[in-house]
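Revision sheet: structure tokens.
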Amino acid sequence: MSKRKRNYTTDFKKKAVELIYARGSIAQVCREMDIPSSVLSSWRRGIIEYDKNSFPGRGKSKLTEEQREIANLKKQLKDMQLERDILKKAISIFSESDRKI
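Predicted:
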């Protein structure tokens, strides 16, 4: 028998995330509110990342074109910074091996 997908209100989600900080434990809040830990962790990430814009409607993002563009550019920036950091480490590793030769 499969479990039925539960729908939670925006207020419920926000209160659950607030309880994480009040109780100090995701596991404890999950047990108290009968929520899967993966779901509660996802809600917490949403609040951290999007703050007031978390949980719009039924999960469909109601971002304006500019907000989508900004989110896309932020993602690209993060990816490029990661790539840069990897290349910096590679350069330092290869330059160390050149010195040893």
